[in-house]
Amino acid sequence: MKLIIISLFTITLLGCAAAGVPYTSDPMKKLNYAYELMNTEDRGLAAERLGLEALADLEKSNNLYGVAEAHTFLGLYYKSRSYRYHKDFYTKQNEYDPTAGKSIEHFKLAAEAFEKDGDYWGVSKALFAMGNAFLTDNDKVNGCNKFSESLEIYRSDKNVFVGRVHPHNPAFESYEAMVEGFITKHCANGV
Question: Structure pTM?
Fold first, then answer.
């Protein structure tokens, strides 16, 4: 009998996509957990689920910054290896996008939410990510346009510090240097 109970418990845990992830009702913690899960290919479904749950919770509470961050996560997820790893699952659900289209749509929604929240560094971040998504689809023109828009907004008078620092690739000394570096590397005209 003890063996049956242990077996059922194990099967239940293995069947739960987010097994091992502590429960939280905090949508921002859900996003943090989603990022951790996204970095493990076989946990992508749980990552998406947590990201979508966080988005729904943040929309309900009208948290514009949170909504923007949730859309940013989903944009990154839908162009990640973790999403591609689950291609068969998404194809069966008629939800697989072999392009970066789903990713780009979430980055657009992130940019809109950041703008409504008055966070223009966030807008710049979403546009930069969108540029990368376009490059994933070998769309250099739109990718470079988004990089340029990102840099323009970052340097604009609208970009007043609102108390949030958005992370950047640590290979670059600053966020601005990162965007400039990508423009130099991927766009014919440079900065």
Answer: 0.87
